[in-house]
């Protein structure tokens, strides 16, 4: 559409950036802790099923709309809608997506700030700065504000540089680093006594729990959150994708990379939990379930590293650097959603749009930090458990009910000439039209009933 729009310069650039968006705290923290809470292997199995059968088709809907319209979510959904009413619905859905992306970024940067704190803490310890080290793990409001600010400033500075020089360049540097650090840590943890018990819990499914409604809803939410769906992130990344790339292949690679990293994170975190038990740390809550969530990441795991002595200081640094990097490649993709809208809608410069929106998001994060107990959980649930699947459903509806099927086909064909003969085209249009919306609705209704 417009000449100033950025573009990923290579296939690998897109894959790393989109996987960078997908791979985040959701994979390294959310996936293993969800698995720990929901019967280990049974959750892993259900997650893989839903990621490929529900989230991948929804991801395809976003990518194809994005690349065809070459626009942000508000403009994109309006552009493919034929009538006045559907255009209005497109506009509302687009704004809802931008709002949810911004809310996710607001709480995500608080958690990412904690990751930075736990990364700096061992550095401060090594330098002998004991007061700083204990402030970093103090959980005070000021600490949370300062580190959240730092993380958002980092995110803004990547986004200011644009698509190729910012998003693509940094994703290509950070993603391989993330993978290497993770592989190293897994090998290290696996060699410690106790690791095998965690591995068993993680890999052996308890089939009785497989259809437990709580497990299914958690796996669905996890799959949508992990693939960054519904909020226009993948739509906007699709809009920066060159026409000659094959969308079904790109989408499949991103889904595979994302699920594999989540799987690897489970190989790291759950065995680490049982290594901690071997060392005398308590890994069960008072109600008898396995420790999960913040307690796992910020108490059990750091305590485990402390027990390892000097080597533990380095292991802790690598672990929290890994978390911070994963968070950064995701947060840049969230910020790009409101920024690209502001640039395209108000003809603003990227630099001013980025810093302005960064400041607004920091204001939201500050409100959450100050009213943490009342707001944090609420924002997380509303944004990720309800809004993301609902928005994913709307995008599927736009791609298959509102938009013309021939145009969808034409767009996919540009990078995949024989798509009409492919299994993908035989299944996807019907599947995304009927099965995805119905399944998402059923699962959402179920989570309402259970809440
Ligand atoms: N997928 C990211 C993660 O797993 C989170 C995310 C959600 C990113 C929505 C962008 C948009 O951490």
UniProtKB/TrEMBL annotation:
GO terms for cellular component: membrane. PROSITE patterns: NA_NEUROTRAN_SYMP_3 (PS50267). Keywords: Membrane, Transmembrane, Transmembrane helix, Transport. It is a multi-pass membrane protein. The chain crosses the membrane at residues 12-31, 43-65, 94-120, 140-162, 174-195, 215-238, 250-274, 311-335, 355-380, 431-449. InterPro entries: Na/ntran_symport, SNS_sf, YocR/YhdH-like. The keyword Transmembrane applies. SUPFAM superfamilies: SNF-like. It is found in: Membrane. NCBIfam families: Na_transp. PANTHER family: TRANSPORTER. This is Sodium-dependent transporter.
């Amino acid at each position: 559409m417009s000449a100033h729009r950025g573009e990923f310069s290579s296939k690998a650039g897109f894959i790393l950036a989109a996987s960078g968006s997908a791979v985040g705290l959701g994979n390294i923290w959310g996936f293993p802790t969800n698995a720990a809470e929901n019967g280990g292997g049974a959750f892993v199995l259900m997650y893989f099923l839903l990621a490929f059968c529900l989230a991948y088709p929804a991801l395809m809907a976003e990518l194809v709309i994005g690349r065809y319209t070459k626009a942000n979510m508000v403009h994109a959904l309006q552009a493919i809608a034929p009538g006045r009413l559907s255009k209005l619905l497109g506009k509302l859905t687009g704004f809802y997506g931008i709002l949810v992306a911004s809310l996710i970024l607001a709480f995500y940067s608080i958690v990412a700030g904690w990751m930075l704190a736990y990364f700096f803490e061992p550095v401060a310890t090594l330098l002998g700065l004991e007061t700083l080290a204990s402030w970093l793990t103090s959980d005070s409001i000021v600490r949370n504000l300062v580190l959240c600010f730092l993380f958002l400033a980092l995110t803004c500075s990547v986004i200011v540089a644009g698509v190729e020089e910012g998003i693509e360049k940094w994703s290509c540097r950070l993603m391989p680093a993330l993978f290497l650090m993770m592989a190293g840590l897994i090998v290290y943890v696996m060699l410690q006594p106790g690791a095998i018990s965690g591995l068993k819990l993680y890999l052996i499914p308890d089939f009785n729990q497989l259809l437990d409604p709580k497990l299914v809803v958690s796996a669905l939410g996890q799959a949508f959150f992990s693939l960054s769906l519904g909020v226009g992130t993948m739509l906007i990344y699709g809009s920066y994708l060159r026409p000659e790339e094959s969308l079904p292949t790109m989408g499949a690679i991103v889904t595979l990379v994302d699920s594999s990293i989540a799987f690897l994170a489970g190989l790291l975190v759950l065995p680490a939990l049982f290594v901690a038990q071997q060392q005398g740390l308590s890994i069960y809550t008072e109600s008898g379930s396995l420790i999960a969530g913040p307690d796992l990441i910020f108490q059990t795991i750091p305590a485990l590293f402390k027990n390892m002595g000097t080597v533990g200081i380095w292991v802790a640094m690598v672990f929290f650097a890994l978390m911070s990097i994963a968070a950064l490649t995701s947060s840049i993709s969230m910020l790009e959603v409101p920024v690209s809208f502001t640039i395209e809608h108000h003809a603003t410069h990227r630099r001013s749009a980025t810093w302005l929106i960064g400041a607004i998001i920091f204001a939201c994060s500050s409100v959450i930090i100050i009213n943490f107990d009342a707001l944090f959980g609420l924002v997380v649930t509303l944004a990720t458990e309800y809004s993301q699947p609902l928005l994913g459903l709307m995008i599927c509806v736009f791609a298959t009910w509102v938009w013309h099927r021939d145009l969808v086909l034409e767009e996919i064909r540009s990078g995949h000439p024989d798509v009409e003969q492919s299994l993908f085209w035989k299944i996807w249009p019907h599947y995304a039209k009927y099965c995805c919306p119905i399944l998402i609705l059923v699962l959402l209704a179920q989570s309402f009933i259970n809440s």
